[in-house]
Amino acid sequence: MRKKMIAVMLLMIVLITNVTVFAAEAMASGTGMAETARSYVLMEASSGKILLEKNMDEEIPPASITKVMTLLLIHEAIDAGKINWDDKVTVSSYAASMGGSQIFMEEGEEQTVRDLVKAIAIASANDAAVAMAEYIGGSESQFVDMMNKRASELGMEHTTFKNACGLHIDGHLSSAHDVALMSRALITKFPDISKTLTTWMDTITHRTRKGETEFGLTNTNKMIKWYNGITGLKTGYTPQAKHCVSATATRDNMNLIAVVMGSQDGKIRFREAAQLLDYGFANYMVKKGPEVGEILGNMKIKKGDKELVELTIEESMAFVVPKSKDEQQLTYEIKYDEGVKAPVYKNQKLGTITYYMNGEPVGEANLVAAYDVGKAKFKNMIPYMFSRYFDLGKE
């Protein structure tokens, strides 16, 4: 009997070990991820590197994840000074007529840009999205043209927008990869939006002929309640699109984007997005080069009102490496352009920086002027003329 018990225990240990090894191998390879999703992609945000994907270029309805582009264009309009956070937007009868998720605004009601953005980001309000589209574009159709133009600029090759909110209409299509691209643009260019995207509950105030009433907003992204490091971003659902989410999270200075499209259930999409994010954080790390604005050197400028100009990098670069290869060293080499004469303008290319991982080239970026250098005036030229005179005299 004792021998049988020992044999059974040994067999159980072997089975448990095999299951554990299999699970670890599956996690390391990314197999068994987001099984109900029609498509998905896991992207590292700073580099844009794809870590996992399934059918990432398949064109399918994106539902309310559409609003990521709407939020991007709103923030870019604010950043450019075209509109302001405190501007008052008058709601049209068309915007007020939107179905689905909404904050039930009335025709003629006024809301600030700030509160409409809250309604879009937190409660996925279709009426708020269309009201902002009309305010920025003049009409929703003109705003949609802006959306498609911006999508093209971002390399979203499998996207055609037909409206600003994501309500189903034939031909309104995107892909998991494209959703990741616009999500990346939003969170990297406007990281402060995370404060709104991770707000669980808030309110706005309706001001109409009937008086003032407070309206509660509850976040549609339930991951903000339980996923460690969550920073956003956006959910979506229509019967045609099924359940979708673009989930963003940050841990250990690494930003990940997990897009799940066409999942079978609202709760399952969150679990599947968490699976993807967990895989990324468990298996990868980021090595970053110099940041934009960091001074990397200086160079002489001929006939300028300054003798030297400081150089910075045009675009920050990051490189994703497996944690199993964390000993890899990121280095860089700087090469200056020659014979540069004034005038020099801020952000003008003046050299290149080449990155190496363990001695192998992995990327290249431009070095640019950190500020303007004007042409030298006569008083600036006197030291140069004396220097030239005495140098010639030595010959």
From TrEMBL:
It catalyses: Preferential cleavage: (Ac)2-L-Lys-D-Ala-|-D-Ala. Also transpeptidation of peptidyl-alanyl moieties that are N-acyl substituents of D-alanine. GO terms for biological process: cell wall organization; peptidoglycan biosynthetic process; proteolysis; regulation of cell shape. Substrate binds at K234. The active site is at S64 (acyl-ester intermediate), K67 (proton acceptor), S124. InterPro entries: Beta-lactam/transpept-like, Peniciliin-bd_prot_C_sf, Peptidase_S11, Peptidase_S11_C, Peptidase_S11_C_sf, Peptidase_S11_N. Transmembrane segments: none annotated. Residues 281-375 form the Peptidase S11 D-Ala-D-Ala carboxypeptidase A C-terminal domain. The keyword Mitochondrion does not apply. Its EC number is 3.4.16.4. GO terms for molecular function: serine-type D-Ala-D-Ala carboxypeptidase activity. It is an enzyme of class 3 (hydrolase). Pathway: Cell wall biogenesis; peptidoglycan biosynthesis. The keyword Cell wall biogenesis/degradation applies. SUPFAM superfamilies: beta-lactamase/transpeptidase-like (SSF56601), Penicillin-binding protein associated domain (SSF69189). Residues 1-23 form the signal peptide. It comes from the Bacteria. Keywords: Carboxypeptidase, Cell shape, Cell wall biogenesis/degradation, Hydrolase, Peptidoglycan synthesis, Protease, Signal. Removes C-terminal D-alanyl residues from sugar-peptide cell wall precursors. Belongs to the peptidase S11 family. This is serine-type D-Ala-D-Ala carboxypeptidase. It comes from Zhenhengia yiwuensis.
